[in-house]
Amino acid sequence: TRVTIVGIYLIFQQSDTRGKAGKAAVAIRQPYIRVVGIEECADGNSRGNSQFSAKEVADFSAFAAQPKPIEALRAKIAPAIFGSDNLKAAILCMLMGGARKLLPDGVRLRGDVNVLLLGDPSTAKSQFLKFVEKTAPIAVYTSGKGSSAAGLTATIVIDSQSREAYLEGGAMVLADGGVVCIDEFDKMRPEDRVAIHEAMEQQTISIAKAGITTVLNSRCAVLAAANPPSGHYDDMKSAAENIDLQTTILSRFDLIFIVKDDRNYKKDTELAQHVLRVHTNAAKTATPAEENLDAQSEGEFD
Description:
Blueprint: E1 3-15, E2 27-40, H1 54-64, H2 69-74, H3 85-96, E3 101-102, E4 108-109, E5 115-119, H4 125-135, E6 139-143, H5 149-152, E7 154-158, E8 165-169, H6 171-174, E9 179-183, H7 190-194, H8 197-201, E10 204-209, E11 212-217, E12 221-226, H9 239-242, H10 247-250, E13 255-259, H11 265-280, H12 295-301
Parallel strand pairs: 5-12, 5-13, 6-9, 9-12
Antiparallel strand pairs: 1-2, 3-4, 7-8, 10-11
């Protein structure tokens, strides 16, 4: 449950009772918030403000009436990255999200889309993750090499003063209602990847540790990026040999993209021109109309 709190940020001094006799106690300043008001956010407004003005509704209707609104939105997904139209459309669907369904027998079907990017290095996989982190209202970015099962789900913390145990949510709990971006997904240990199986499919995290038994919500989409075992995608091998991930974790992803760095002179030339244009016009946002070069740029590359 996500809440909005209005309060006063204060600190209080707490002496160290563990000090030895005859030594002065060290003052420890502990921060806390004196809560004045608290509001619980419902599922409808957990992603942001769901109340729109009449002008905003009119703007939405005018945008939806365009001939190709999906293409217009897709062009705004990471405009500095060249190509990858299908991948951008998948990220657009992930950011928009789907509709959660509650069946008559009480079974809940998730509406979030999980996307896996796997392929050669230098294909802007990490840039897509960074773009989603900055664009989504609620997003958490983490790296698979430095992530553990407790860091992604939840961990038990023992208070140093009262010695009481309490839960501290991980990345997938903090991103409830948003997106979790996991880079270097293939570098994660297998036992850590197993811990997020429940969070990706059932969108809950069950905890039974230190006398605490509870279920935490993790209603978030997962965008992961990984590399093949050999570093580059080997066309001489099958897709199963290039994807060094267990079937149990692959079944949790709705969309799996194989991103390959094809060796094509025309495509590489257009990519180099696009990179130069982005660096030259860094103050402006690249648009699809700028994909065509003028005669001067063509003459330079000839």
